[in-house]
C-alpha cells in the first residue's frame, strides 16, 4: 500500500528552535531516509521551497493568469513529503511517528493513503 507522509511547517516554530535543534531535525530525517531505503519502503522524498517562491496558475477568460506567492495565506505550509510503500496503514503510522517533526509542538505530520497512481487505482 502506498502512503504519502507530509510534513506541515510553521516558520515561527522553526525560527524559535536553536541551531542544535534544527541540526537534530536534519540528522533525524537523514537516519529516517536511510531506514526506509534499507527496508525497501521509500519510493520518493522531496522537500519544498518556501511558499513565498511559489507561483499560482489560474485560468481566467481562457487565459492563464500567474500570480506570485502561495495558493493560500496560512501560517503553516507543506514543507515536504515522503512517498512510501508499506504493508498497511499501521506501518505508515509507525513510520510517521519516527519523523523528527512529529515530536515538535506546532509542527505536523499527516499520513494519507494514495488512491490513484500511474493511471491505476490503488488497492
From TrEMBL:
YCII-related domain span = 1-114
Gene3D superfamilies per record = Dimeric alpha+beta barrel
Q: Which InterPro entries match?
A: Dimeric_a/b-barrel (IPR011008), YCII (IPR005545)
- Could you identify this protein by its name? YCII-related domain-containing protein
- PANTHER family, alphabetically? BLL7171 PROTEIN, BLL7171 PROTEIN-RELATED
Task: Give the family from UniProt.
Answer: Belongs to the YciI family.
Organism expressing this protein natively: Catenulispora pinistramenti
